[in-house]
Amino acid sequence: MGNRRLKKRNKIKKIMRTIIAVMIFYILLYISYGFYKENKIRLVEGKNESNIEIEKNMEKNTNIASEESNVPATYLGFEVTAQLIIPNINLETNILKNYTEEAMDVCASKFWGPEPNEIGNFCIVGHNYNKENMFNNLIDLKIGDEIYLIDNKNGKITYTIFDIYKVKPQNTSPLDQNTAGKRIITLITCVNYSNNRLIVQAIEK
């Protein structure tokens, strides 16, 4: 009887060790893949030389083909300025009007620049928390992916991603407002394996 119990306990221990080993394997695989994805993104030192050609003297485009919109005035007690939709990572989120630590814990927020869908560089910052309205999946975006920005004044505007890169926290060049009369969106978030910032930039389509 004692031997049967001992064999049963040993069998359970063996199964548990196997389960733990498999879990550790998949955790390490997940971390390695995340590290690999992050390392594939280039690190920009100083001012970024974008891979898009913007003519310095081009005429400002003030005619926007827009759709009707109904952006809510508030979200969980915070003022909303726009809505952001990125189909390729299934992201739909409000953009809060004022950047504060409290607001950042709730939703992505405007960080710098003009009003949404106006001429200039509309900069949005968000945590990379694993929540449906946060920026945790920005790292999976690719050049050419589309982004939709919606506000109650200009409606829904389509933007196309033209650059993805990393910067040190003290590098403020992604906030540059010299857009040669174009509308640009800059998305900013953290990465998991360094103190760098992930930058995704898109231009009006």
Question: What does this entry look like structurally?
Answer:
The chain is α+β, with helices and mostly antiparallel strands and 205 residues long. The protein has a single domain (41-204), classed as Sortase (Sortase, Chain: A). It contains 2 helices and 9 strands, in the order αβββαββββββ. The chain has helices at 2-40, 101-104, and strands spanning 74-75, 78-86, 91-96, 108-112, 120-125, 146-151, 155-167, 183-190, 197-204. Strands 2-3-4-5-8-9-7-6 form an 8-stranded mixed β-barrel.
Main attributes of the structure:
alpha+beta; 21% helix; 205 residues; eight-stranded mixed beta barrel; elongated; 9 strands; 31% strand; Sortase, Chain: A; 2 helices
Cα distance spanning the termini? 76 Å
Residue ranges: pLDDT <50 for 5 or more in a row? Answer: 51-65
Radius of gyration: 22 Å
Please indicate the percent range of residues in DSSP E strands (runs of 2 or more).
25-35%
> What is the fourth-level CATH superfamily?
Sortase
- The total number of structural domains is 1
Name the assembly state.
single chain
Overall shape: it is elongated
Order of helices and strands: HEEEHEEEEEE
Strand-pairing-aware structural class: alpha+beta
Number of strands: 9
CATH level-1 class: Mainly Beta
What is the CATH topology? Sortase, Chain: A
Total of helices: 2
Largest sheet: 8 strands, mixed, barrel
Strands ordered across the widest β-sheet: 2-3-4-5-8-9-7-6
Percent helix range: 10-25%
Residue-averaged pLDDT, rounded? 83
CATH architecture field = Beta Barrel
